[in-house]
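Worked example 2:
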Amino acid sequence: MSRTLRWGILGCAGIAERSVIPGIQASETGEAAAIASRDADKAGKLAEKLGIPAVYGSYEALLEDSSIDAVYIPLPNHLHKEWSIRAMQAGKHVLCEKPIALTAEEATAMAVCAAEEGVHLAEAFMYRHHPRYDRIREIVASGEIGELRGIHGTFTFNSASSEGNVRFRREWGGGSIYDVGCYPISAARLIYGSEPVAATVHALISPEHDNVDMMASGLLEFPDSRALTFDCGMWAAFRNTLEVLGTEGRIEVPSAFIGSPHVFVETKQGRREEQQPELNQYALQADTFAAHVWKQAENRFTPDDAIANMKAIDACLRSAYERQRVQIQS
C-alpha cells in the first residue's frame, strides 16, 4: 500500500491557495487534510473551494489534530519562527515558506528545535526541486561553459499600489530582499556550491511603504573571485531570470523560479535549448519532503542550508539600510 503524508495548512495566504495546496494535491504522496485560520469563515470557504476536509478556527486546534503529519506555514515572515517551533513541538514536520525566518539567529533556533523533536524542517524553495537545476549544475561541472565567472539573477514584480500588503510592513519582515531577493541568493549558493563572504546592496527604501526595500540591487562576493549580482523588487516590471557565465559560454534561464522551465546554453559551437519537462515544482517539493520524512532519500537542503541563506539575507539587509559593505561570518 502506498503511503500518504497528511498535511495541515496554517493560514490562507495566496501562495497556499494558488500553488502549494494544489501542489500537495497533485503530488504522489500528499493529502491536504486540514486548514486553519483565525478567521474560520475564510478557512471554510478556501477548504470548500479546494476540497480540504477539515477546517479549524485556530492554528492551535490544527496542531492538536493527531492525524496531521506535516504542517505548511505560509504566514507572514515574522510568524515563521513561532509557529514552526510550536508545530514541531506538537510533533509535526514543517515546511515553512521562504524566507524561513527574519534572521539567521531565528533560523538557528528553529533548526535546534527540529533536531530536539526529531522532525523534518524544510524551507519552501520549490524551484530547486525541478530537475533543471541539477542539469544546470551538470553543465557547469562538465566544463562546457569553461571556468565559472559569475551569476546574475533577477526577480521583480510591481505590487506597489496594493493596500494592506503584509510585504509592506517592515516589522513583519516586509521588503523585496526577503520576498524575492532570497531566490537568486539561494540559486547562486546552490550553483557555486559555496557560501558568500560579503554583501553590498543599494536599495530603494520607500517611506510610503513603511520604509521597506521596494527595490534592491546587490553584489554578493563568493570565494575564488566569483560573485552574484542581482536585483529584486516589488515596484518594477515583472521578470525572474538567471544567467550563469563562464569563460567559454553561458547558461540562460529566462524563467528561473516560476514559469516555463526553458534552459538555453550558448557556447562557441552555437546556442541550444536544453529540453526540460513541464513539471509541477510544488508537487515535486511535496514529494521530496515526504521522502525525507520517511527517510527514503538523502536530505540535500537541511536546516543548515536555510541558516546559511539567512546569513546572506541578513548581510544584504544590513548593507541596504546602512549603505556599506558587510562581511558575512561563516
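The chain has nine helices and 15 strands. The first strand starts at residue 5 and ends at 10.
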